[in-house]
Design goal:
- This protein is mainly alpha-helical.
- The protein folds into two domains: about 100 residues, DNA polymerase, domain 1 (Orthogonal Bundle); about 160 residues, Intergrase catalytic core (hpI Integrase, Chain A, Orthogonal Bundle).
- Helix content is about 60%, strand content about 5%.
- It contains 14 helices and two strands, in the order H-H-H-H-H-H-H-E-E-H-H-H-H-H-H-H.
- The chain has a two-stranded antiparallel ribbon with strand order 1-2.
- The relative contact order is 0.09.
Amino acid sequence: MDDVVNVIDSFSTFLELKGYSSETIKQYCYDIKLFLRHTGKKPWEIEKRDIMSFLVHLKKEHNYRNTTLYRKLACLKTFYRFLVDNGYVDENVVDKVDRPKLPKRLPTALTKEEVEKLLEAAENDRDKLIVRTLYSTGVRVSELCNLKWDDIDLNSGEVRVRGKGNKERIVLMDAETLNLLKKYREKYNSSEKVFPVSPRTVQRIIKKLAEKAGIRKKCTPHALRHSLATHLLERGVNIRIIQELLGHSSLSTTQIYTHVSRTLLKQEYSKLFELPK
């Protein structure tokens, strides 16, 4: 099995060179080992039925949702693309497998009032700034945790963010959040990173604040990102500008917010018809 171990190690290095995060690389390698352990085969011996058997196993034995199966399959597809490119196999066998159908779920967005309630629930400067930074910049939780003081222009409020695939973009920060960050740095300037915490810790912070604030929606760091996009759209900001701020490679990803913003929909509809009171 040394040859398989070497291939997985090479794949890990390939992902690192492509700019994948350490968390993603770890998860991908885990999924591949899990898959090969289930099949009892080497990567170049795999057939379509082996992949289907693996997906059925995860669905029946572990009750995985289609969204999870979709991610596992995407991981295998990337792995087999690597194998094809490096001459280990002749074709990407995963291309023969139909992807699980995903439910069309709209992202959760908080109202402005709910964002304020989250901020009021924060008992310390760090937690309050985490909420403000997530909302005002729209960054992903992993981007927040990797944010360094050198990435922030404390004069202009421009923030350099390294997103998926190690792609850089510039996001903006409002004046109040920027001023609070300056004071926070003066008081707690002990780390290179602005928030030296893990994504899991941030998720727990947001969940705890939501419970304290009495918010019944599923409240996550990503919900604050969705909220910024929705609120910008409601104020007539061009969707391509929102795409740039969020770092979406495709406009179709950003366009989901046109379905979320019921306020904007009603506003436009009321130009033609009178809405019920």
